[in-house]
Specification:
globular, 37% strand, 3 helices, alpha+beta, 124 residues, three-stranded antiparallel β-sheet, Homing Intron 3 (I-Ppo) Encoded Endonuclease, Chain A
């Protein structure tokens, strides 16, 4: 189940430049480096979660003492599209590879569109 309130909070952090993503789907969080006396972007630690025998990359980070966690592909899509994912839509990996969170590999579709692509990718 998607927590829309939490995704909105993360989208706001992205729009403020606290969390960013690059074209390849890597996600970074802005932190203050006391040695350099400036803010730097560091990669967010990714974890892999088994969901229906498919591996999705999940990210987790802390900002101002608050812990945030979500699937990386959802954050990458929201970051580049500067909007929330509509309630009845999902983010589909075009090539079927769940590790590939490159923005060119992600599309917003409904579940029926995702199922059609899944069958096509499996040669059915």
């Amino acid at each position: 189940m998607v927590n829309m309130k939490r995704e909105l909070e993360i989208l706001k952090l992205a729009m403020e430049g606290i969390v960013i993503a690059d074209d390849d789907g890597c996600v970074y969080v802005r932190k203050f480096d006391s040695v350099k006396s400036k803010y730097v972007y560091t990669p967010i630690r990714a974890t892999y979660k088994l969901q229906r025998h498919n591996q999705y990359i999940n990210i987790a980070f802390t900002h101002d003492g608050e812990r945030y966690r979500m699937p990386a592909h959802r954050l990458v899509w929201m970051y580049f599209n500067k909007s929330l994912i509509p309630m009845d839509m999902i983010i589909h990996h075009k090539d079927g590879i769940k590790f590939n969170n490159s923005i060119v590999n992600l599309e917003c579709t409904d579940s029926s569109g995702n199922n059609i692509e899944r069958y096509r990718a499996n040669g059915q």
